[in-house]
Amino acid sequence: MNQTLLLIDRLLFRPITIAFSFCTLVLGLGRNISRSRAVVKLLITQLHITILIFAVSSISIANETLRIQDKIIPIGSEYQNSIQILNNRFRIDADVKEVTIVFFREFGSPPIVLVRPDGSKLYLENDLEDDSFNWFETDTYDMISLSEPMPGPWQAIGDVLPDSRIMVIAGITLHADPIPATIFSGETIKQTAYLENAGSRIDMSGFRDVVTLSIEFVSTNNPDYPNFGLGSRPIARFEDNGLGFDEYEADGTFTGQFDLKITEGEYKPIFTVRTPLFSREQISENIVLLPSPINVSHILEGNDRGDHVLNVGVNTEYLKASDFVVDGSVRHPNGEIANFSLTEATMGERSLDILNSDYGIYKVNMSVFAQTLDGRDLVLSVPEYSFVTSAPEIIVEATPAPETELEDVAIQLQIQEPEDESQSYLIPAIIINIILLIIGILVILLVVNKRKHPNNHYMLRVKQKIEQLKKKQPEIKSQDANA
What we know:
Elements: H1 2-31, H2 37-71, E1 74-75, E2 83-84, E3 89-92, E4 98-104, E5 113-115, E6 121-122, E7 133-137, E8 141-147, E9 152-157, E10 165-169, E11 172-176, E12 183-184, E13 187-197, E14 200-201, E15 212-219, E16 232-238, E17 254-259, E18 265-274, E19 279-283, E20 287-290, E21 294-299, E22 308-314, E23 325-331, E24 337-342, E25 350-354, E26 360-371, E27 377-389, H3 403-452, H4 458-482
Parallel strand pairs: 1-3, 12-20
Antiparallel strand pairs: 2-10, 3-9, 4-8, 4-10, 5-6, 5-9, 7-8, 11-13, 13-14, 13-17, 13-27, 15-16, 15-18, 18-19, 18-20, 21-22, 22-25, 23-24, 23-26, 26-27
């Protein structure tokens, strides 16, 4: 009510008062035209003051008009992003065909209810029944996509945050730092990006929970590169949470850590912006991921102490040979891990003495911090390097045996010969005895069966079976002849 009275005062009473003062001034000037110059100066001063009051009042009226328009702004070709909510009301123009809106609300509060200009309501539960809108809700926001929305004033009913704004999502674009012209396999790159909605940067902290920003490298299937047929590989996900490489939480700047531990070759970078209801892709120009510029070699027992020597160098076509340091670890064959750092500022290769602790496999993992020829600092993860050491062969020289030992061996051979001959006759004797035992058992069984069944013993049944077969043979031959 007070705002309404203030508005009436600014828009109605003040202009009337100013006009009245101006008229009075003109009349006074007419009546006193013949008075002294002092009076004329006073009237001129009053005229200046009146004009100043009128100008200030006009500016105030214009600002108040803009403030009112900011509260209820048509969503169309000239809408503003993040429209301030006035009593949870907003307006949609007739030329809007589709719009996606986000309402931020209290954590854990139920979804809002949308009221159309005609008073009908949209609920989350009606999403599956009504094709005119799609609804996605979480604990902190509602995202609603409207198709062919009804023109006019809309209202949102619910626990909408006091400083919440209606996020009208249309034309979201990702503005990311350009990818360096020269990048290497195994490199880790920090990239920052921000989002724009309809040409305006989005700086609302709650919006980071609405979108997901990511980038992937897709192989161009160029047969001239090793990544032919590799497909796509996810590279990074942009975050605004103050963790990792991200400097400040919820500042509107998203940070991605590119992990390029993939095969070198030609790729097409694709930035993707995803929301629960839609996604957008931004395809960049093809890039070439170069092979690792780090050269690693070793020399077995390469120093005076018999230790192994590891040499690390850089490809001087891309990196400065005098400006790189190495940090890593060596895993010995016995499982022990030794950390190392190579920080000396010298030209050429860096060398590391590795203790010759045992025979087996030595595994070296390292990261290299270097600088390109154009001054870009980079961090490289070098693929695991390993080498194998083998134990020396032990050569045993043959020594002639004494004569006494030869005589003892001959005696032992003579003793073993009769034993071998006796063993050669033992096996056939055992086999023959087993066969005779089996035959004896069969004879005993036949005799016992004949005594128990004199008229139907086993041998008699066999004999009858043979006679039956003999009788059938002439019949079979006659049948074959007739056939």
